[in-house]
Amino acid sequence: MRKLVVLAFKEVLVAFRDVGALLTMLATPLALTLVMMAAFGSGSNSNPISDIPVLLLNQDAGTFGQALTDIFFSASVGDLVTPTLVEDEAAARARVNADEVAALVVIPEDFSARVFPFGVRAQTLTGVDVTTLAPDATLTPEQQAGFAQAFMESQSPSEPVVVEIYASPDWRISALIVKAIVSQGLERLNIQIAGTTTIVTRLMAGMLQAGQSDADVAAAMRAMQPGAAGQEAAGGADVELPIKLITTSATGRGFSWLGYYATSMAVLFLMFAVTAGGRTLLAERQRGTLPRLLISPTPALTILLGKMGGIVLTGVLQMLILWGTTALIGAYWGHPGGVLLTIVLLVICASSVGALISAWARTPGQASAIGSAVTLIGGALSGSFFVRWNLPQWVQVFSLVTPNAWGIEILSRLQAGRAPSAILPWLGGMILLTILYYGVALVGFRRQFK
Amino acid sequence: MYRLWGIIRTEFLRRFDGPMAWVFFLLLPFLFTAAVGAGLSGMMNDAPPEEVRIRLAVIQQDEGPVVDALFAALTGVNFDVEVVDTFPDDTFGLIVPAEFSERLLDGDEVTLTLRIRSDSSNTPAVEQAVRAAIGRVGGAALVARAGVAQARDANLVATPEDEATLFSELLLDTLAAVETPAAVANVVWPAGVTLETETRDMANSAEHASAGQIVTWVQITLLSAAEVLVDERLRGTLKRMLVMPTSRALILGGKVLATVLAGLLQIAILLIGGAAVFNVGWDRAPLAVTAVSLAFALAAAGMGLLLATIVKTGGQASSAVVGLSMTMAALGGAWFPLEVTPPLFRQIVRVLPATWAVRAYEDILARGATFADVLPTVGVLLGFAVLFTVIGVLRFNRYE
């Protein structure tokens, strides 16, 4: 037992005295975690983009153009954008071309009249301005006919009016956000127009069927004006909708970019470290130190276990240091007991890949290259670089042949606030993978070191 | 010249001495381009693929008419709605409370509960999509309620049952009518910008991934000049070469040149592969692409030379090459667009060649930049190359 401990501690000392190994084990994962934190933020719902500079050119004199502009200054948009009203189109486009601003929103002339043509058409046909029509006004039969004709004509399908978002390619993601804001405003506008038209159709039909007075029909017509029925749904940028939404989670915790990348980078560079550790067995053979150890009165199994124990101990220490340092910058890894158990089992599982490569590689160089390649491929397929759940389903399933995938799955569950008992089936799966890889490695070791 | 060729040939043979070299040289860059392209597709593309749908488990406690409209709206924003009794562990969930429809008709507020997945980064997108759906239904409900009020004023509805019927009809008619919108938003890029492609669902993210992964992996290849030099130094072969009647500049130049040529070969293969496999428009400005690639290769190889004079062992060199390459690539915008980073971050990372290379490649792909357009960036990259090489040579001479 003492020999085993001595061998294991010697491996740990060699690893932690090597500047190159420390770069791989600790410095690089920490640096990459910090880079990811700088890019994506650290909060659970942090939005990395804010204060998008956007120019608004409202060429419309009507109500709808103003309503659309108001959206950008509303509380619902908040600090996502920094809007500026402009009047000089050429200058505004030049600023987009120079990448000074993300986008220019152009609300075209006669926007209100084109999206809601009834008012203009009714005035043309009857000479009556529907926006000033008194509720008790009496309409002549000609005016009623004109209103009806205007209504029918305004119902004819036409091409939708386009609000142009002139965007800089330097601000591609911001441009899509600006488009989403405009679309949100247009959605409200479209609901208002569709709703108002629906209401008036029903009211007019009902009133005429009931033989009601001209004044009532005129009142129905007023519903067509901006500011009447349905106005609430679109007019104000901060209109209170009757349906509210609250969010909850089963565990009370949300997703954290910092937490995700802290663990996924730790797992990735654990794989680098343990596969490099496995290589040392072949290096010892090449240098002649392994044969010297084998002729000593120490069983071969003790030597093998000592070396693997050292690699595992190094990996555990590496993970503990990364856990501690990333926790200092706010990364949450989960229930401490669950994390500790996961780290130990994950490092053993990762070491099985190192053992597998060492058992079947011919030279230390070959083992090193295969180890790095396996680690990087495993990292790409498992979600070390991008969130695992955005990868195709078949990739997620296939990647379970790597310890990276098991590590990310289990640690993500712990980060989500799950109890250690909830991860036991996953730990079981990882143990099975470990047994499988060590079994195959054993065959290779017997073949190679017989 | 013969000696220079001999050094270059030896370096090439050493570099490509086995199948694993090709794994790093080609397989991994292509694999990462695909993975990064897929990872960014939801962030950078205007039109995500139709098949990207999210399962939404719904506990339905109301059977009223508005619920069907809500389900239709949720389906319209790419949810697969599934009515359940209890929420499964691995899905987003929505609770539609009892009297949902009735309360909307009465003009009361009603609250839906969205249960998010704590382990999913999709939560903001899911929440946004649910809000879009309830915004549409809620807006239609407001309209329908206003219509019922007007009908009541005009004595067109007599009983609560009539009002409920009219409310449902107005709500559904409004939702049907809004499918033909009166106005739409459209993004227009400046002239010369080529973001609109036939395969636009992938093109933007694939372009960024292709440019970024070329920079990442070629940087690894080029920085590995440090590994070669350190290896030679540790084995003593470098010292033996330096005492031979061959100039120091020729030896050092040959080794660096071999690395640059390997990097350029890798860039060429990745450019052709990116165009063929991911439909990236690398053929838009061949001269500009060549100039940027050459300047970046020289800058990164110079950095490799400098690194060789800093690290002491092969292990340090190997770790530093991978660690530095990946970190600098990530910082320089090779993994994700720098647009998502704070302004100060964007300014600081301009000290890295990777930042300029990614920027120049993206200008060519997205803005249709020509050779003349990228010349300032090429100048900066060549400046990096001179700076790193001069410092590297000075340190090398002192070291050896």
What's the helix-strand series of chain B?
Answer: HHEHEEHEHHEHHHHHHHHH
Structural class of chain B: alpha/beta
Whole-number radius of gyration of chain B?
30 Å
Residue-averaged pLDDT of chain B, rounded?
Answer: 82
Key traits:
heterodimer; A: 450 residues; alpha/beta; four-stranded mixed beta sheet; 7% strand; elongated; B: 400 residues; 5 strands; 8% strand
What this model shows, in words?
The complex is a heterodimer of chains A (about 450) and B (about 400). Chain A is an alpha/beta fold. In chain A, about 65% of the residues lie in helices and about 5% in strands. Chain A has 18 helices and five strands. With about 400 residues, chain B is of the alpha/beta class. Helices cover about 70% and strands about 10% of the residues of chain B. Chain B contains 15 helices and five strands. In chain B, strands 2-1-3-4 form a four-stranded mixed sheet. In chain B, helix 2 crosses helix 10, helix 5 crosses helix 6 and helix 7 runs antiparallel to helix 10. Chain B starts with a helix and ends with a helix. Chains A and B meet through helix 2, helix 4, strand 4, helix 8 and helix 9 of A and helix 2, strand 4, helix 5, helix 6 and strand 5 of B. Strand 4 of chain A pairs parallel with strand 5 of chain B, so a sheet runs across the interface.
Write the layout of secondary structure elements.
The complex is a heterodimer of chains A (450) and B (400).
Chain A: H1 2-17, H2 19-40, E1 52-58, H3 63-71, E2 81-85, H4 89-97, E3 103-107, H5 111-115, H6 118-126, H7 141-155, E4 161-167, H8 172-210, H9 214-222, H10 231-234, E5 243-249, H11 257-287, H12 289-294, H13 300-328, H14 336-360, H15 364-382, H16 393-398, H17 403-415, H18 424-449
Parallel strand pairs in A: 1-2, 1-3
Antiparallel strand pairs in A: 3-4
Helix pairs in contact in A: 1-13, 2-11, 2-13, 3-8, 6-7, 8-9, 11-13, 11-14, 11-15, 11-17, 13-14, 14-15, 14-17, 14-18, 15-17, 17-18
Chain B: H1 2-15, H2 19-44, E1 54-60, H3 65-76, E2 79-83, E3 92-96, H4 100-105, E4 110-116, H5 123-153, H6 160-177, E5 183-188, H7 200-223, H8 225-235, H9 237-242, H10 248-278, H11 286-308, H12 314-331, H13 343-348, H14 353-367, H15 371-399
Parallel strand pairs in B: 1-2, 1-3
Antiparallel strand pairs in B: 3-4
Helix pairs in contact in B: 1-10, 2-7, 2-10, 3-5, 5-6, 7-10, 7-11, 7-12, 7-14, 8-11, 8-12, 10-11, 11-14, 11-15, 14-15
